Each structure stands twice: as structure tokens, then as C-alpha cells.
Amino acid sequence: MDSVKTVGDGSFRVTGSQRKIRKIDPKINIYHRCNHSGLCPKRVTIHVPKNAVGKGSKDAQLFDIGVLNLANRYPGEGTDCIH
């Protein structure tokens, strides 16, 4: 739905919308090469909670993922050559 890059301090803001009837399952994929020398970048996936998704005229709540140390390993982390 949206693709962004971080600014100098590492922060980012993502917004998106859809016009379909089906529900969406939003997530944030972070691609990086911290402590990784493989061909494809590492991918960390963060699922966005339902209260951070607006519905119609209802505003979404801010979802702050906090500070991530991408040198650490995270559950479900993998590599991704096609993204």
C-alpha cells in the first residue's frame, strides 16, 4: 500500500488506504543488511494492530513501533530477494 525510506534519524511514517470491500491485514516489512552479508536483505515483519487502521471516517490510532536494533534477531525474520 505504501513504501517509504527512513529519514536521517531512522524514523518513518507510513499511511495507506484501500477502497475494496475485503479487510486488509496491514504489516510493516523492514528490509536491512545490518550484520548481514548475504545476497538478499534481511526482512523483519511487524503486524499493525487493528486499532491503528482507520475505518471510513474513523481515525486510526498512532502505532509507534519503538526503537528496533536490527542487529538483533527477531521472530519470523528471514531474507527476501523480491520485495
Automatic annotation (TrEMBL):
InterPro entries for this protein: Transthyretin-like (IPR001534), Transthyretin-like_sf (IPR038479)
PANTHER family attached to this UniProt entry: TRANSTHYRETIN-LIKE FAMILY PROTEIN-RELATED (PTHR21700), TRANSTHYRETIN-RELATED FAMILY DOMAIN (PTHR21700:SF109)
Species, as recorded: Caenorhabditis japonica
Superkingdom per UniProt: Eukaryota
Family assignment from sequence similarity: Belongs to the nematode transthyretin-like family.
UniProt entry keywords in alphabetical sequence: Secreted, Signal
Places the protein is found: Secreted
UniProt protein name: TransThyretin-Related family domain
Major localization listed first in the record, in broad terms: secreted
Pfam families: TTR-52
